[in-house]
Amino acid sequence: MQDCIFCKIINKQIPSNIVYEDEKIISFYDVNPMADIHVLIVPKVHVESINELNESTLESVKYAFSKIPEIAESLGIKDSGYRTIINTGKDAGQTVKHLHIHILGGSKLPEKLV
Ligand code: AMP
Ligand code: ZN
């Protein structure tokens, strides 16, 4: 996708602070962190949001989920705990239209989401 910022990160057209990468996903630090540790896990296949998933692209999201514990461990937050968020659409404040999982942790997070 030409104008997708996360596709550009995946294609190394713009830099990111990479935490983990393999052939199916990339994980990097969020540029505007909302917690002490805030990384994104991004399936390399371009899917706008949960609403656009199909059987095949769901596999890459499933794979991304399977990698969460390993990535959390590498960040030192697996046992202390972390929050996973996927924003979908306008009311959730989704700003990048390429499905991604937020991982937030590193200190006690606020209980309230809104
Ligand atoms: P969302 O609001 O769920 O769409 O999340 C998009 C996230 O991407 C936000 O938390 C942004 O801070 C983050 N973001 C946007 N551009 C970049 C970038 N170039 N590198 C890292 N994170 C980014
Ligand atoms: Zn994309």
Q: Topology, please?
A:
Blueprint: H1 5-10, E1 18-21, E2 25-29, E3 37-43, H2 55-66, H3 68-75, E4 82-85, E5 101-105
Antiparallel strand pairs: 1-2, 2-3, 3-5, 4-5
This protein binds adenosine monophosphate and zinc ion.
Zinc ion is lined by residues 1, 4, 6-7, 46, 98.
Keywords, please?
five-stranded antiparallel sheet, alpha+beta, 3 helices, 114 residues, binds zinc ion, binds adenosine monophosphate, HIT family, subunit A, single chain
Description:
This protein is α+β, with helices and mostly antiparallel strands and 114 residues long. The protein has one domain: 2-Layer Sandwich (HIT family, subunit A), CATH 3.30.428. 23% of the residues lie in helices and 22% in strands. It contains 3 helices and 5 strands. The chain has a 5-stranded antiparallel beta sheet with strand order 1-2-3-5-4, with helices on one face. The longest helix has 12 residues. The termini are far apart. The model has no long low-confidence stretch (mean pLDDT 97). The chain binds adenosine monophosphate and zinc ion. Adenosine monophosphate binds next to loops. Adenosine monophosphate (AMP) binds next to loops.
Largest sheet: 5 strands, antiparallel
- The rough form would be described as globular
CATH C-level class: Alpha Beta
Number of helices: 3
CATH homologous superfamily designation: HIT-like
Q: What is the multimeric organization of the chains shown?
A: single chain
Topology pattern, helix = H, strand = E: HEEEHHEE
Helix/strand structural class: alpha+beta
Q: Give the second-level CATH assignment, the architecture.
A: 2-Layer Sandwich
Q: How many β-strand runs?
A: 5
Strand content: 15-25%
Distance between the termini: 32 Å
In terms of per-residue confidence, which ranges show pLDDT below 50 for 5 or more consecutive residues? none
Give the spatial strand order of the biggest sheet.
1-2-3-5-4
Q: Provide the list of bound ligands, each named once.
A: adenosine monophosphate, zinc ion
